[in-house]
């Protein structure tokens, strides 16, 4: 340290400078989270699924591609439930009573939550369907606009697991 700097800072000044420097270090980005009601009006919190991959799929009952991909999401959910969970986010202003027939007809067993067509921080929707991959640590790591299928979800999950070092 140059002599003029060392002499110009008192011990309290150095402590203050070090404290400010410590605060200036970037803080690790916080992961995405939400709490939304399910079809029985129970809260579903994304953070409750930490430790597993989460596939968050935004859909609407008027969206034909959304309804066509639901059996694919269900097949993935059944086959990979121990490694990844699917959460379907209905992105329209319908009640649970109005959504239940779609879910029942499609045989969906993964959680369906209601957003009331309200945006959710960290999940930018440019169209439907949109699917997000959330890591076991709660970081949104991938986004897919358009339909998905079981094979694509399996392949992408394996790629993300490999990239993160959590492959099984």
What would you say this structure looks like, in words?
There is one protein chain. This protein has 168 residues and is an alpha/beta fold. It has one domain (35-164): 3-Layer(aba) Sandwich (Glutaredoxin), CATH 3.40.30. 38% of the residues lie in helices and 20% in strands. The chain has five helices and seven strands; from the N terminus they run ααβββαβαβββα. The chain has helices at residues 3-8, 11-24, 64-80, 96-106, 150-164; strands at residues 35-37, 43-45, 53-59, 84-90, 112-114, 130-134, 140-145. The strands form two sheets. The chain has a five-stranded mixed sheet. A two-stranded antiparallel ribbon has the order 1-2. β6 (130-134) and β7 form a beta hairpin. α3 (64-80) crosses α5. The longest helix has 17 residues, at 64-80. It is globular and about 40 Å long. Residues 1-10 and 12-30 have low confidence and may be disordered.
